[in-house]
Write a structure and sequence with these properties.
162 residues; alpha+beta; globular; 29% strand; single chain
Length: 162
Amino acid sequence: MDVEFRAARSDEPPGRELLLELNELLNAQYPGRVRKPGSVTTPDEMGPPGGVFLVGYEGERAVAVGGVRRLSDGLGEIKRMYVVPDARSRGVGRALLVALEEACRELGYDRVRLDAGPAQEHSKSLFERTGYVQTPKYNDNHIADYFAEKDLRREAPVAGSS
């Protein structure tokens, strides 16, 4: 697995197309989401100066996307993580998360938050294995049932270590 992450805009190809795939998946998993989205993040929020949107490439093929937006001083939020189906279970999601966390550090964030819905069990497991700690609900995303935060000033525990 060799993935290169490049900054891009989420409303331009290929990020836009992968976000459309993500939206189709979420709409299937959460009936009613089309009428009432859980969380809305604009392309400008995931761009400079307080954010970034990354596209992950294997060769020249886009296989993953994710963004960061500013919540407050020192606090960012990871949004819109998606890995195409045939790239899953190969470490691409973990690589994307690491790249987004590094982007948070570069943007000056000491902490990062994220949320996930009940259908994202694999994502929640990844977040917990990489040092995220559940927190009280911090936003109005009515779909999410998992809210977590990571202190980026500390190293994440290695999976399987005690």
